[in-house]
Write a structure and sequence with these properties.
Elements lengths: L1 E2 L3 E4 L5 H9 L13 H13 L10 E5 L7 E2 L2 E2 L7 E2 L3 E5 H6 L4 H4 L8 E9 H7 L6 E4 L15 E2 L9 H23 L4 H4 L8 E9 H11 L6 H11 L6 H4 L4 H4 L2
Parallel strand pairs: 1-10
Antiparallel strand pairs: 2-8, 3-7, 4-5, 6-7, 8-11, 9-11
Helix pairs in contact: 1-2
């Protein structure tokens, strides 16, 4: 058993296909095998598509010139707006899943830049906070799977994130520590008795650590942060969202629309 601290980071600087492959691999805990180039990512991404696992493709958004695709123009003007797209004077932004659904290919995707109005954050948080975040249905999510990922006692065991109250309440801290130790013991006991991970995970508490990728447009991030930095949000949620907005690379376009109270949450 080991305890970790919450963490927030921004994923940037990767070509769209390489970014999709990295994020997709979080589910199976194979990010150490992440592809190092868009070309290297193609076989893995084709396999995902063939299996019907399309949600990872939402985590990259590309800018497509109109000259490449005339379907969205009529007499030089965009057709009816589509909620997940953004139209500029000579191009439109679209996530890769939608681009492929409209007949685009992965090979074509490799030729486009990632849209500037998209942000992906990666959080190390507990399962309880992750459950709250995935309620923001306009965003895209990819999370470490407790069905496919496993822990090893030899490598420190299961990771937990202690509740904030543990820092100021020794009795509660001891209660949590004892319970997490008991849960870990019963989890590994079940595994050793032949129970599959997808069943044994029912023994894990909400404080179990997870890794969650969250992707969305700047507009939807602003909406999320207004809620999750508010005083009514869970303390652990406010803490990790404050970590995010305080990162030097966090977009000023979004930060500038948050209130002083939210920034000081």
């Amino acid at each position: 058993m080991k305890f970790i601290e919450p963490k927030a980071e921004i994923i940037k600087g990767l070509p769209p296909l390489q970014k999709i492959a990295l994020i997709a691999r979080v589910c199976t805990g194979t990010q150490d095998k992440a592809e190092t180039s868009p070309d290297a990512a193609l076989p893995f991404l084709r396999k995902l598509g063939g299996m019907g696992h399309l949600s990872p493709f939402e985590h990259a958004r590309i800018t497509v010139p109109y000259k490449h695709d005339s379907e969205f123009t009529e007499n030089g003007s965009p057709l009816a707006m589509i909620s997940r797209m953004y139209f500029a004077d000579n191009a439109y932004n679209i996530n890769v899943r939608d681009f492929i659904a409209r007949g685009g290919t992965l090979e074509e995707t490799a030729g486009f830049e990632e849209a500037k109005d998209y942000l992906t954050a990666c959080f190390d948080i507990d399962i309880g906070i992750a459950r709250e975040l995935v309620r923001h249905r306009t965003m895209s999510f990819m999370e470490r799977s407790t069905r496919w990922c496993s822990w090893s006692p030899e490598e420190g065991g299961i990771e937990f994130i202690k509740p904030e109250q543990c820092k100021e309440d020794g009795a509660f801290d001891q209660l949590c520590t004892d319970f997490f130790k008991f849960a870990e013991n019963r989890y590994f006991l079940a595994i050793n008795n032949g129970v599959k991970r997808e069943m044994a995970r029912s023994l894990l508490p909400l404080a179990t650590a997870t890794k969650l990728y969250v992707t969305g447009t700047h507009w939807w991030w602003e909406a999320l942060l207004h809620l999750r930095l508010g005083k009514r949000a869970h303390p652990a949620m406010r803490r990790v969202m404050k970590m995010l907005v305080e990162l030097p690379e966090f977009p000023n376009e979004i930060r500038g629309k948050l209130t002083a109270e939210e920034l000081g949450a």
